[in-house]
Automatic annotation (TrEMBL):
Its cofactor is Mg(2+). The keyword Transferase applies. The keyword Magnesium applies. GO terms for biological process: isoprenoid biosynthetic process. SUPFAM superfamilies: Terpenoid synthases (SSF48576). Its EC number is 2.5.1.90. The lineage of its organism: Bacteria, Pseudomonadati, Pseudomonadota, Betaproteobacteria, Burkholderiales. GO terms for molecular function: all-trans-octaprenyl-diphosphate synthase activity; metal ion binding. Belongs to the FPP/GGPP synthase family. This is Octaprenyl diphosphate synthase. Supplies octaprenyl diphosphate, the precursor for the side chain of the isoprenoid quinones ubiquinone and menaquinone. It catalyses: 5 isopentenyl diphosphate + (2E,6E)-farnesyl diphosphate = all-trans-octaprenyl diphosphate + 5 diphosphate.
Length: 309
């Protein structure tokens, strides 16, 4: 990861000062770096040790960071990772344009691999992520959203880059198709579990630990699995309260909504859904070589269920 950070620092440079300033601001905020870590772990599990893995790990982090810059503008977010968002500090125009810079820099870097298969994977992933974000925008304030529609969005906007990160490692290692598919399946299931737990934490997390405001999803009119399950299980009055909160996009009744998702067992059911995805990830890599990197992948999937930030 230190080598990845070196690549990130080197490739953030720009002759336009504001580009470097905004990009370094959000990169320096840290974050979990899960996607590059996933690529490195998977590459290690498959025995690939060449330096190209550092370049592509930085690429997926740049793509992820670009989506964060754009998401915070779309969602009008003010807090991320415990400090003001880039759009709060530098304004929406700068955040959008620097997000574009990170996308384009990522595509410059992926060309360095001189591998059309790698470029195809990353180009497709970036396109699907964008489609997922647009679909989520279309779904806002729609209290009738189904669980299947919810899962379709998170598999596009979140899980797809996890899937691509794991698949890239297999391609770098020259793995056969069945191993590549297994790696991709692990990544998709891991990314889905990650997002489902993230949606739990919006109603059951610690704002200080998470570095963002509780109830942001509700304020933005996002329909997530805890709310879907709560409306399925709750009384008519409880369902009406949640439905109105989603449609209006207000958090005045957030304490009441949190109480409903807890008392109906919606949070526990959502955590179980995440656990099922984590198990799918674990099962997917049963055929990988037994080594410390594979053990790390198994631990990563299990640890998602205990995350609080």
């Amino acid at each position: 990861m230190r080598e990845v950070d070196k690549v990130i620092a080197a490739r953030l440079s720009s002759s336009v000062p504001l580009v470097s300033q905004v990009a370094q601001y959000i990169i320096a905020a840290g974050g979990k770096r899960l996607r590059p870590a996933l690529l490195l772990l998977m590459a290690g599990a498959l025995g690939y040790k060449d330096a190209q893995r550092f370049n592509l790990a930085a690429v997926v982090e740049f793509i992820h960071t670009a989506t964060l810059l754009h998401d915070d503008v779309v969602d009008e977010s003010t807090l991320r990772r415990g400090r003001p968002t880039a759009n709060e500090n530098f304004g929406n125009p700068a955040s959008v344009l620097v997000g574009d810079f990170l996308y384009s820099r990522a595509f410059q870097m992926m060309v360095d691999s001189n591998n059309m298969r790698i470029m195809h994977i990353l180009a497709e992933a970036t396109n699907i992520i964008a489609e997922g974000e647009v679909q989520q925008l279309m779904n806002t304030h729609d209290a009738s959203l189904s669980e299947a529609a919810y899962l379709n969005v998170i598999r596009s906007k979140t899980a797809k880059l996890f899937e691509a990160s794991a698949r890239l490692a297999a391609v770098l290692a020259g793995s056969p198709e069945h191993i590549e598919s297994a790696c991709a399946a692990y990544g998709q299931a891991l990314g889905t579990a990650f997002q489902v737990i993230d949606d739990v934490l919006d109603y059951d997390g610690d704002a200080v630990e998470m570095g963002k405001n509780l109830g942001d999803d509700l304020r933005e009119g996002k329909v997530t699995l805890p709310l879907i399950i709560a409306m399925q299980r709750g009384s008519a009055d409880q369902c009406a309260l949640i439905r109105n909160a989603i449609e209006v996009g207000e958090t005045d009744n957030l304490p009441a909504v949190i109480d409903i998702v807890k008392t109906t067992g919606a949070l526990d059911a959502t955590r179980q859904a995440a656990a099922s995805q984590a198990q799918l990830a674990i099962d997917a890599i049963a055929g990988l070589p037994a080594n410390r990197y594979t053990e790390g992948l198994l631990q990563l999937a299990a640890s998602l269920l205990d995350r609080r930030i």
